[in-house]
Amino acid sequence: MLFRSKSDFAPFPEPGVLGDWAWVWDSAEINFISAWEQKCLLGWHLSTRMLPHSTAVFVHEGKARWGIGDGIYVVKSGDLIFIPEGINHSADLLSPYPFCATFIHFTARVFGAQCILVLLGFPKKIDGLESFASAASELARLSALKPPGWKLRCQSIVTELLLRCFHEYPQLFQPSVTLKDARALKLLCPAFQMLTSSNGKITVSDLAKAAMCSPTHLRRLFRKVVGMSPREWLLEHRLNRAALLLQTTDKSVQQIADACGFESLSHFTRYFKAKFGVSPSQYRNFVAQNI
Predict the structure, then answer these.
(1) CA within 13 Å, CB half, 286
(2) Which of 41, 136, 182, 185 would give a disulfide with 58, using CB separation of 3.0 to 4.6 Å?
(3) Domain span at residue 123?
(4) What is the pLDDT of residues 38-52, one digit of tens each?
(5) In terms of Cα–Cα distance, which of 75, 74, 72 is closest to 88?
(6) Domain count, the chain
(7) How sure is the predictor about 6, in pLDDT bands with cuts at 50, 70 and 90?
């Protein structure tokens, strides 16, 4: 029997600064929502929108202009684009020829709240990845036909797609915080885990003990590396959990508000719309129309 040694395999590119971010994948929560292939004719336009989940678009043929956040990207056959959750985006067709693309909706978060695409600075566009065409088409096929275990398989395909980009194109990533802050973020893991499993009745002192630091230092770390207070982070987690329940269950909006620890339906609706730009009911309708 023959065995291949480590030297027999083609090496991956050097990870560079991404080497300090490998731990993120150990805390990753990746959920598949839907995928479909769409053919668009001249005049097609995607109005500006912001969604509480991430989107990947693989272009099979044609040419379009995508606005993602403050950037403008021209995409063509073989290109793959990533749109992180909570980022404004829009699109216009650029050629008279049909435009065909696979749209993939998913969430990818660390500790259930922070979008991995934002945290790791995923490239908004990767050029000419024809090798991803089969994966994109398979996601659309599974989502349309729904064979037994289809969601689990779709989740594994999305995970493989994200990790493949991370492994093979590290030079295109721009993490949102410095390496020093990345290490500080890792130190907050116990506090994140406590917040994730909490019903909200938890003190900053409890979190500080979990992270083995003082309450003052904990607040400072959250502000510096997360950009919000522990309480604000918990609200983010609850809103993201609510969006997932809107996507995947038939529970009423009131039941979801209760399950996610909101004081009232009005509070839930106000916070959800402030973060995502649409009401919970409008978001559920959007997801239903695109599955």
Answers:
(1) 16
(2) 136
(3) 18-172
(4) 988 777 888 888 888
(5) 72
(6) 2
(7) low
